[in-house]
Amino acid sequence: EAGVVQSPRYKIIEKKQPVAFWCNPISGHNTLYWYLQNLGQGPELLIRYENEEAVDDSQLPKDRFSAERLKGVDSTLKIQPAELGDSAVYLCASSFSGAHYNEQFFGPGTRLTVL
Amino acid sequence: AQKITQTQPGMFVQEKEAVTLDCTYDTSDPSYGLFWYKQPSSGEMIFLIYQGSYDQQNATEGRYSLNFQKARKSANLVISASQLGDSAMYFCAMSLRGEKLTFGTGTRLTIIP
């Protein structure tokens, strides 16, 4: 079974430029999460989708960040414009809400560097 | 609000020895799940073990066991017979009602040959 796929793995951009990250969850997983992980810290939730619906986006900085999950499968996270402080690893995870304890499976992450 | 505390920023352990990674949590919700993840230098988060708040027995998965002390709100991870490949960051996390994971700051474990 394929795991959570993310692309790109690495991205270097200049500040004020836009950037987008893509995530393909595990087949059959209806819940998708985007987490932000700063250096030396644990991941923090940005947004959680149940199928196509964003059910928790309270931590998403909506002035510059946006996300979508078309057809309840793949998801894209966008930053426009990027700031120096956005340099971090962006992790995507997925889970099946009917599972016993809703284990989240993580992708390899996208490491963003903003210059 | 829920909170996870990991007080050990780094640990060094001799190969083949057992190691305990500390984790305490705080929540007023009686229903919660506790998770441990391993994050190697490659970056992916690897699930290790789960403990539910109503589980009567401590969880075990191979060389991993979770020392769950509910009254003390602690969920320490025990790795037996450590191996060089165990060197990584380890994160404790909590989930309420199967929703988002709240992570601690992690412990960097280094296994010494």
Helices and strands in order, then pairings?
The complex is a heterodimer of chains A (115) and B (113).
Chain A: E1 5-7, E2 10-13, E3 19-24, E4 31-37, E5 44-50, E6 53-56, E7 65-68, E8 75-79, E9 88-95, E10 105-106, E11 110-114
Parallel strand pairs in A: 2-11
Antiparallel strand pairs in A: 1-3, 3-8, 4-5, 4-9, 5-6, 7-8, 9-10, 9-11
Chain B: E1 3-5, E2 10-14, E3 19-21, E4 24-26, E5 32-39, E6 46-52, E7 60-61, E8 64-69, E9 74-79, E10 88-96, E11 101-103, E12 107-112
Structure, explained:
Chain A starts with a strand and ends with a strand. Chain A is globular. The model of chain A has no long low-confidence stretch (mean pLDDT 93). By secondary structure, chain A is mostly beta strands. In chain A, the strands form two sheets. In chain A, strands 2, 4, 5, 6, 9, 10 and 11 form a seven-stranded mixed beta sheet that branches. Chain B is built from no helices and twelve strands. In chain B, the strands form three sheets. In chain B, strands 2, 5, 6, 10, 11 and 12 form a six-stranded mixed beta sheet that branches. In chain B, strands 3-9-8-7 form a four-stranded antiparallel beta sheet, with no helix packed on it. A two-stranded antiparallel sheet of chain B has the order 1-4. At the A-B interface, strand 5, strand 9 and strand 10 of A face strand 5, strand 6 and strand 10 of B.
